[in-house]
Amino acid sequence: MDAGQLAALIAAVFFAIGVIAAVYVLVKLAGLIGRASTVLTGYQDASDALLSRAQAAVDRANEQLARTQVLSESVEAVSASMADLAEQVTAVAGTAKLVADGFGAPVLRLAAASYGVKRALAVRRTGQAGRRREISGRKRVRS
Q1: Does residue 41 have a pLDDT over 80?
Q2: The model's pTM
Q3: Mean pLDDT, residues 90-115
Q4: Assign residue 42 a region: left if phi > 0, alpha if psi is -120 to 50, beta otherwise?
C-alpha cells in the first residue's frame, strides 16, 4: 500500500466516523423532537382545559350580571314606588293636619259639652247630687 492508498483509507475511516456521529446526533435530535412534541401536546391539552374552564367562568359571570341587572331594575322600581308613596303620605299628612287644626278644637269642645250634659242628666235622674260614696275604704264626694 502506498501513501495515496493509505491516505484514502484514513480519509474513508474518518468519513465513516463522521457519518456515524452524524447519524447518532440525528437519532438524538429525533428523540428530542419527539419528546418536545409530546410536551407541546400536553400543554395544548392543558391550555384547552384551562380555556374551557375560563369560558365557563365567564358564562357564569354573565348569568350573574344578568340576574344583578334584573335585581337592579327591581330595586329602581321599588325606589320609584317608595318616592311616590312618600309624596302621597306627605300630601295626606298635610290634609290630616289641616283637618285636625280646623276641626280638632271645635269637635273636642262639642264632645266635652255633650259629656257634661250627659253627666248632668245622669246625676239629676238618679238623685245622687251631694251624696257621699265610699270607695276602697275612703270617702269621696261625687258631683
Answers
A1: yes
A2: 0.41
A3: 77
A4: alpha
